[in-house]
Amino acid sequence: MAENNFLVDSARLGERALQRKHELENNPASRRSPLAYFPGMEQLDSPVEEAVLQEMEDYDCSRYTAVDVRRALAHQNCSREDFKALLSPAAAPFLEEMAQRAQRETSRHFGNTVYLFTPLYIANYCENYCVYCGFNCYNDIRRLQLDEAQIEHEMQVIAASGMEEILLLTGESQQKSNLEYIGKACKLARKYFRNVGLEIYPVNTEDYRYLHACGADYVTVFQETYNLEQYEKLHLLGHKRVFPYRFAAQERALRGGMRGVGFSALLGLSDFRKDALATALHVWYLQRRYPWAEFSLSCPRLRPIVNNDKITPQGIGERELCQVLCAYRIFLPFAGITVSSRETASFRNGIARICATKISAGVSTGIGDHEEKYDGHQEGKAGDEQFAIADSRSITAMYADMSGEGLQPVLNDYVYV
User: Fold this and answer.
1) Is 117 helix (H, G, I), strand (E, B) or coil?
2) Could you count the other beta carbons within 10 Å of the beta carbon of residue 15?
């Protein structure tokens, strides 16, 4: 079977598939180059990737001192060099000062609002073998794809809670979740929600244009890690293995008419300081090419997955994560910052007071279980989750907690004319 048309039924892994899995894991020569595009993948003539990766490669966090950190905090505008100092170990003793500066920047540009949204996973089939992900094609999990009626029912349940923004997610399978399927989901979402986001496999500019026409407002893509060597070791099979195509996804989405784009590395896969630097620089460079667009960053850390509960963040605890987020806010004062349910309720409550502008609520990373989550009537019918969440608060509880923190929860801040 051709690799660009590869989909494993993980419930019935045959001997040939197991042999291929073993070969991919143990023989690097058996893998495609992570720089080799598949047929049909659009290639952009853009200098952003080279600029970001070179600056990340040159970053030596150990050369920054307390003097550099103090200088960075004293500057009214945070330069790239200042940002590098704020990400360095030398900035750790200044975390309280960074938090105060980040809070001032957040208040100046976003007031005391925090935006609430809900993710809806509509399929968990995947053609990629990413060793850290619960959806990977070799993982033996319950696979499920919602049909149109099931998608609409899930949306009705979520909309009844008062939520006005939804983020639609699929596993990365172009066979099971093709553009037409995702487009229909966008059209359904537009019936119930004021803001529709997508977190799907990267596609070409014209494909993003089609999805935008179907109702999608913004696209989020996780680069996972910007370290090409580590990326190659973690993404062993499938379209996701193509590093530059994934890197340019947000730029293609903007060219396709999307209003906004989101960025992130999955912190813990590689050197988190370099990945955080590259994520922010990715935003910084594109802001200058597309100044009209909305940009946001996420800060997910590794979480346990089905069949592998030993996958945990490496080298980045809550204090380090807080440092990264404060540095993001100081460097990119106009960008949104999303903190996912991968983090605990107490951490999310605290960080929302400092620099987060968007928080998910009523979260499920399983397929088709929002009604189960709300009233317990569909136990056992859902597809397995992508990862284990740490904060399972309902929308009502999240709204009350954010209000209790002195924040103003917002369900929609767009006026359509």
Assistant:
1) strand
2) 7
Q: Structural domain tally of the chain?
A: 1
Task: Note the pLDDT tens digit of each residue in 378-398.
Answer: 444 566 565 677 888 989 999
Query: Can you tell me the distance from the alpha carbon of 87 to that of 123, in angstroms, rounded to the nearest whole number?
Result: 36
Distance CA 156, CA 149 (A): 10
Question: Does pLDDT of 218 surpass 80?
Answer: yes
The verdict on residue 18 lying in a domain is no
Rounded CA separation 59/66 (Å): 17
Q: Is 276 helix (H, G, I), strand (E, B) or coil?
A: helix
Query: How far is CA 97 from its chain centroid?
Result: 28
CATH number at 184 reads: 3.20.20.70
Burial class (CB in 10 A: 0-12, 13-18, 19+), 371: middle
Query: Are β-strands 113-121 and 358-360 bridged in parallel, bridged antiparallel, or unpaired?
Result: parallel
165 lies in a domain? yes
HSE-up of residue 345 (Cα within 13 Å, Cβ side): 15
Q: Is 90 helix (H, G, I), strand (E, B) or coil?
A: helix
CA distance 327 to 405: 22
160 within 8 A of 373, measured Cβ to Cβ: no
Residue 156 CB neighbours (<10 A):
14
Check the CA dihedral 302-42-34-19 and report its sign. Answer: positive
* 284 assigned to some structural domain: yes
Identify any residues that bridge with 301 across adjacent strands, giving them in sequence order: 267
Domain assignment present for 217:
yes
Query: What's residue 366's pLDDT?
Result: 73
Q: What is the pLDDT of residues 299-313, one digit of tens each?
A: 888 776 677 666 666
Residue span of the structural domain in which 389 resides = 47-410
Phi, psi (degrees; rounded to nearest 5) at 264: -175, 150
CB atoms within 10 A of CB 57: 13
Pairing of strands 235-237, 129-130: antiparallel
Report in angstroms the alpha-carbon separations of 111 from 105, 107, 299, 390, 406. Answer: 9, 4, 21, 27, 11
Measure the CA angle with vertex 122, ends 118 and 127; round to 5°.
Answer: 125
How is residue 255 written in tokens? 């060219």
Query: pLDDT band at residue 413, thresholds of 50, 70 and 90?
Result: confident
> Can you tell me the distance from the alpha carbon of 230 to that of 16, in angstroms, rounded to the nearest whole number?
27
pLDDT confidence band for 371 (50 / 70 / 90): low
Ranges 22-31, 142-151, 371-380: which has the least confidence: 371-380
Do the Cβ atoms of 212 and 11 come closer than 8 Å?
A: no
